[in-house]
Predict the structure.
Amino acid sequence: QVQLVQSGAEVKKPGASVKVSCKASGYIFNNYAMHWVRQAPGQRPEWMGWINVGNGNTKYSQKFQGRVSITSDTSASTVYMELSSLRSEDTSVYYCARIGVTTFFQHWGQGTLVTVSS
Amino acid sequence: DIQMTQSPPTLSASVGDRVAITCRASQSISTWLAWYQQKPGKAPKILLYKASTLERGVPSRFSGSGSGTNFTLTISRLQPDDSATYYCHQYETYPLTFGGGTKVEIK
């Protein structure tokens, strides 16, 4: 069965960076794009970007352009999301999400809480 | 960006009731719409995609309809386990966007 296992919770100071990992199993890693979605407390999910893990191509939301980087390590079946210049408004649960036959999110990681606080 | 507007924000209904949640897109998205169920502290779970295709393993009391800009998620006979927040999601155009959610409570 498809499993996406994310790294643990993080507490960061404003201005710092955070890197969250997402280890995939149960399917052919290179065959599916991986997206990152975040959700602030009590808010709707917010799409951040995605990576074609087969060729490394990425696309980011304009909102995060210049601050976010999504990479993959095919040898480890792992995708990473790094967000820089953190501010308090970035406090959210960050999810990796694998697409289905088209670009809906069929499988989700368990989420990683990132808290930004001085 | 395509704005997704859900209504109502909350609804309270009894076990066995038929409930409907609507989602409106700010421009046509054909049928590139998915519905998710989210329980507190958990990741969203896919219910339907392509507006009306039921994900494998999802109970048949969930159904979806609509195209263009207006969509509906219907739960035909509400069960206690359906207490959750429901989100619509358009995947026709980047940036991908979500509705504001509908919290379903059981009376």
Summary: DSSP finds no helices and eleven strands in chain A. The longest strand of chain A covers residues 18-25. Chain A touches chain B at residues 35, 44-47, 59, 61-63, 95, 100-106, 108-111 (CB under 8 Å).
